[in-house]
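Here is the promised in-class demo. Please do not try to memorize the tokens; focus on the logic of going from shape to residues.
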């Protein structure tokens, strides 16, 4: 295996395999020091079988909240498509891989192997958890921004249901793009599961780039709807696009001087 390549996780038949469970219980205890997670609407999801959950991304704590909600709230094992840099960290990378998490390449490299790994998990009846924005939102008020097409492409090609999930509250403990961690054990991060997103008009045929973008907008609007309910406010009509504001695609755009 080349130095710039990641080892893909192996598919385990168990819904919540041993290593994932050990990590979940360890991190679950830590999470209670930071905040509480409340899951709303889990009756909308199938109890078994494969599906994709798509979430908005506000802070670096979101993966912990989403993992907790999926593992403990839904009783399903979460399989993230996570940025590859995490898998280069000694020990952490090996743990993530053993726990069934999928590393994703950035900087323009095609994600053939990661997508193949994700499809294998879906074929085995597991749950894929994705932040379609690909990074923390750049929207100034924390609303969902434009998404990438990977989750839509996956749902259509795999023929599995996809559900929009809004989550809100982690920004109180760790504001977006800051390191000012403020633990609040009594504070609730609410996770709201919406109905299955209807992508039927895009199925059964090859899709153009524009059609994939249109389907992705539907997904991001569905996520935004859940966030609106949680926040009790209306989001901007148009999804925020960082490119239109001269902002970098990845990384801390505030640190890079692009505000």
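The designed amino acids, position by position:
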């Amino acid at each position: 295996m080349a130095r710039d390549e990641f080892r893909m996780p192996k598919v385990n038949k168990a819904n919540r395999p041993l290593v994932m469970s050990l990590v979940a219980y360890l991190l679950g205890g830590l999470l209670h020091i930071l905040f509480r997670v409340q899951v709303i609407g889990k009756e909308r999801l199938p109890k078994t079988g494969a599906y994709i959950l798509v979430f908005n991304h506000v802070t670096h704590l979101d993966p912990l909240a989403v993992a907790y909600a999926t593992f403990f709230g839904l009783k399903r094992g979460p399989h993230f498509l996570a940025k590859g840099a995490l898998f280069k960290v000694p020990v952490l990378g090996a743990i993530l891989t053993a726990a069934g998490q999928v590393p994703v390449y950035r900087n323009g490299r095609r994600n053939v192997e990661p997508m193949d790994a994700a499809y294998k998990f879906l074929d085995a009846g597991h749950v894929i958890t994705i932040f379609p924005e690909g990074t923390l939102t750049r929207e100034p008020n924390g609303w969902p921004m434009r998404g990438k097409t990977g989750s839509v492409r996956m749902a259509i090609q795999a023929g599995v249901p996809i559900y929009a999930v809004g989550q809100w509250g982690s920004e109180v403990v760790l504001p977006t793009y800051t390191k000012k961690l403020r633990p609040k054990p009594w504070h609730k991060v609410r996770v709201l599961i919406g109905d299955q997103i209807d992508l039927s008009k895009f199925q059964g045929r090859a899709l153009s780039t524009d059609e994939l973008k249109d389907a992705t907008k539907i997904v991001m609007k569905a996520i935004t709807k859940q966030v609106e309910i949680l926040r009790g406010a209306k989001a901007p009509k148009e999804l925020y696009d960082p490119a239109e504001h001269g902002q970098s695609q990845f990384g801390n755009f505030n640190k890079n001087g692009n505000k």
